[in-house]
Amino acid sequence: MSLRRQPPVARAPRYGLARILSKRGLCSRSEAEQLIRAGRVRVDGRCVNDPEFPADLQRARIEIDAQQVARAAPQYLMLNKPRGLVTTTQDEHGRDTVYRCFDGADLGWIAPVGRLDKASEGLLLFTNDPQWAARITSPESALCKTYHVQVTCIPTANMLQAMQAGVTAEGELLRAKSVRLLRAGEKYAWLEIVLDEGRNRQIRRLLAALEIGVLRLVRVAIGPLVLGELPKGQWRALTAAEAAALSGA
Q1: Cα distance between residue 220 and residue 228, in whole Å
Q2: What is the pTM of this model?
Q3: Tens digits of per-residue pLDDT, 34-77?
Q4: Residue of 50, 65, 96, 117 marked catalytic
């Protein structure tokens, strides 16, 4: 009599402990590594000092400072970043960071999704869900970002065309997906610039290559999410529909 072979039992995926703490929305990966190396984390009753210690993402019983911790409730937030704040958790030069806007909110650990430089303002996302953040920032997401930019001249049609055709700066091709003139005064103008890729200080470098100065740079939309009337320095939670639309869920 032949014996029927039993199908193999599927094993739950195992990840390094620091990655698990990050995936559970409890802290950043680097913060998790510090907690683990300091001997403050236990897994299933055992003190673990190795950030790469493999554990079950779903089932491992994790304690930090003898307090059991579970997955944090997911948070998806948008902020109207003011000019002059640095997009970082802590600044080595003592400058004010975007976290100043969340003072007193008791949100737990959240991290920015992408960045805006100190001189830029507008729509900035935050979350404690690393997978959601990764989907949004992935080049495959196809999320366009829209900016309103005040420039130091009245651009000609040739200038606008050059912005879309692209210019090479520091060996890198910089270009906008689309550009249009919003309004113009006697000396200055406002442009709407849409990007479909993320490069460091892309708009400022693109315009500098064309000898165009930037007076203000405001991000007004990320994909379908629009900044709208959210006051400067204020934040709000995204609706479930907004969060899903951004991540393609």
Answers
A1: 7
A2: 0.84
A3: 999 999 999 988 898 998 988 887 788 888 988 888 788 999 99
A4: 117
